[in-house]
Amino acid sequence: MSMDISAVEYTPFEDRLHTCFGDMLVYKSSQNTKFFADQSMPSFIRDWLMMRFSDAEGRIQNEKIAQYVKKTIPSKEQWSGIMLDMLHGNRDVRFLTKVKIEFDTKKKQALFSLPVFGVPAHKGEAVANWDVLEKNRDELLSASESWGIVTVRCEPDDDNKNNILKLIDFKPFCPYKIDLDYYIRARDFFNLEEWIDILLGAADYNAGGYRSQKEKLAMLKRLMPFVEKRLNLVELAPKETGKSYLFSQVSQYGWLVSGGSVSRAKMFYDISKRTNGLVSHNDYVALDEVQSIKFTEPMEMRGALKGYLESGEYRVGDYRGTGNAGLILLGNIDADQMDTDTDMFSKLPAFFHESALLDRFHGFITGWEIPKMRESLKADGWALNTEYFVEILHALRGENIYRSVVDKLLRLPPDAATRDTEAVKRLCTAFLKLLFPNATDVEKVNLDEFEEYCLEPALEMRGIIKKQLSIIDPGEFGGAKMPDITINVGGEEKTGVSDGKREETED
To answer: Which helix (H) or strand (E) covers residue 273, if one does?
Structure first.
């Protein structure tokens, strides 16, 4: 994107959208979505293909895409043909897929697997070249699978006794060059309502399908862990509100755990394999259907989790590690429980009933304010390419200037609990990055908008956590209220909200 956006005129919304983001727009529709859903592709690959195989009106060339996918992104059913090329044709094969790396300390080998194909059938049959790992450490040494172009060859093993598959090349799937400064400047050409609609479209939602701005903002709260490091949230919502989709399909930088068992080794560090866990290699880890999740070694897990949620550090045995992933608890809630004045956490696993653990979560998302998924909520029209959008959000995580702005804007009572003030600051920073990425200096902040769209919702989200703590543990938290955090710039003080409810300020 090399256009000079300083010359953009205030034309109709869609014209400005094309002028500012023309190269990064795709036409999203239910028809396109259905076609790619049948191909079982995540949204970031879907949008890449749509950009590659669509015309100026956004119409996709289904036949060409199908041919390209068959050749470049093979399905599990095509693995036999790939093996034929390698074994009988003696050819190296090259295609786009997911790769997972593990290590065999006994043989001092790096092993790879291709989860899409269920390869290898037996341990030791697929080995990665060390130089491939060295060149792609950040991508391949992740706790999750990595998308990329792989080149695989069949050749004899080191003992010349058996043939094995060899990973001889890997190119990460990252088709876009991200100009964060450009994105930040582009925000100047849209009002807040328009920008909110842009964010929703980028995440595959149709802004026109929402009944109110309140619903839209409730939906966007789910994106906060995408832009802010170690932001820990709890969301309880009715079924069918799209929790799983957003956290599993939109970003390749996050990890969704759906039920089952979670071990300390998987989450933090595996002593036997000497590999870091999910929190060290992801922007967020979301525990979906949290009511059904069980933790192995719960005492050790709780201790490691409390330390990590507090400081971003964890200890497993003699190993000390760090991570930047936020932890998101996603649970379903019945209509009669949608009341912040009652114990909404009663159906969470007993593991999470400890107040000292819950106190380390920064905010609560009232998921019942997010509408259930319906056809009218699916993206329909020109919208930001999801892959590009996710790369922008990922880049924003490393921008510390927004926290500096928040620190300067907020006045904290001297007796305020540090966990409360830190939670509010993190939440405000996430809102600022999402809604006002051009607010890179205090002078660029509209104080009324900051109060309404950053401070007030941050205090409300943390206030719900505080209220739940007082219900769960009245001995420790009974009667505790949110600190009176205010905006203070140039001698003017503005008061936000506390305990999740708006307060009237005296003149």
So the answer is: none
Q: What is the pLDDT of residue 373?
A: 92
Q: In sequence order, what are the residues at sequence separation of 6 or more whose Cβ sits closer than 8 angstroms to the Cβ of residue 356?
A: 306
Q: How far apart are CA 445 and CA 406, in angstroms?
A: 10
Structure tokens at 215: 């619903």
Residue carrying the six token digits 């009237």: 504
Measured on CA atoms in the order 221, 223, 227, 229, is the torsion positive or negative?
positive
The DSSP letter of residue 270 is E
The alpha carbon of residue 363 and the mean position of all alpha carbons in its chain are separated, in whole angstroms, by: 16
What residues are paired with 97 via a beta bridge?
148
* Beta-ladder partners of 332: 237
Spatial distance between the Cα atoms of 240 and 431, rounded to a whole number of angstroms: 25
Task: Determine the Cα–Cα distance for residues 333 and 217; give it in Å rounded to an integer.
Answer: 20
Answer yes or no: are the C-beta atoms of 356 and 186 closer than 8 Å.
no
Nearest to 115 by CA among 140, 142, 93, 97: 97
| C-alpha to C-alpha distance for 177 and 1, rounded to whole angstroms | 9
Render pLDDT for 440-450 as a digit per residue (tens, 0 to 9). 999 999 999 99
Give the 3-state secondary structure of residue 354. Answer: coil
Using DSSP's 3-state secondary structure scheme, residue 191 falls into coil
- H helices then E strands: how many in the chain? 21, 21
The size of the chain, in residues, is 507
Cα dihedral 254, 260, 262, 263, rounded to 10, equals -140
CB atoms within 10 A of CB 406: 25
CA–CA dist 267, 7 (Å, integer): 49
Whether residue 413 is preceded by a cis peptide bond, meaning omega within 30 degrees of 0, is: no
Closest CA to 233 of 224, 242, 245: 224
CA 261 and chain centroid, separation: 21
pTM assigned to the model = 0.81
Could you please report the per-residue DSSP string of 97-143? EEEEEEEETTTTEEEEEBTTTTB-SSTTSEEE-HHHHHHTHHHHTSS
**pLDDT by residue (tens digit) across 203-219?**
999 999 999 999 999 99
The Cα 201–Cα 193 span in angstroms is 13
Instruction: Identify whether 298 is preceded by a cis peptide bond (ω within 30 of 0).
Output: no
